[in-house]
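Below is how a single chain appears once it has passed through the pipeline. First comes the sequence as given, then the structure the pipeline wrote out for it. We keep one example in the README because the format questions we get most often are answered faster by looking than by reading.
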Amino acid sequence: MLLKTTAAGAGAITAIDTHAHVFSQDLPLAQRRRYAPAYDAPLPLYLAQLDKHGISHGVLVQPSFLGSDNRCLMQAIAEAPHRLRGIAVIDPAAVAAEPNQLDALARGGIVGIRVNLFGLPDPDFASDAWRAMLPKIAALSWQIEVHCEAERLPSVVGSLLARTEDSIDIVVDHFGRPRPALGVDDPGFRYLLALGETRRVWIKVSATYRNADPLRPGSGEQTALAAMPLLEEAFGLDRLVWGSDWPHTQHEGAERYDSVCSMASKLLPTQRELQAVLVDTPARLFRFV
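Resulting structure:
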């Protein structure tokens, strides 16, 4: 077991991986996509990684290349419903046409939606479709997970904070995706730090390699290590969660589950930090308790 936390009793939470994807390459792909995998990432292989590393629970996130077709995600959760939760991708216009679909997703273990904006414009949260859907998300006590460049956080997260009810949690992916050349000095990352006082925003301390400059080996790790004390001070450990980002799409050649677990140990060097970020905080946020 690489990630050591405190747990007691059968079925106890030892750790929660809050960010992973499962898919197969023969699934129908979204028309607008930046990437398509040439391999399968099946649920049994993911669960085997959790077992190998002593991680009891996981959160599956709908990959962007599958768009809003959440069938693979739902099937995976159904195979291990006590162990898994899910974050879906939703088309607000489709919800307007079929409003009961969110309730069906909730019954199947979905606890939020993801807004992945890489390669896409900012959503119009003032549109009729979004204004109709946001109260439904609030009623389900779902979160909204945001993945975009740090420089866009003021327009995206700022707009969500202004338009959503206090009951909607907002989760920002992968350290907020600061620009590799700027790291923690990215103005977007500094804006993110200022959101700690709202107590409505959570951060995934995950995928350090996605914030790396390809010309500067180790720069993603350096940024993450510099960001951690700033995030802990601004948000507190009760607003930070960890994820493996398995199977590390577009970084499959360099990353392994072992390596991201080793990185987690560097980011969270104390037992108190591990317990909070791997167990206590994600258990509440993703509704395992």
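The domain at 16-285 is CATH 3.20.20.140 (TIM Barrel).

See the next section for the split statistics.
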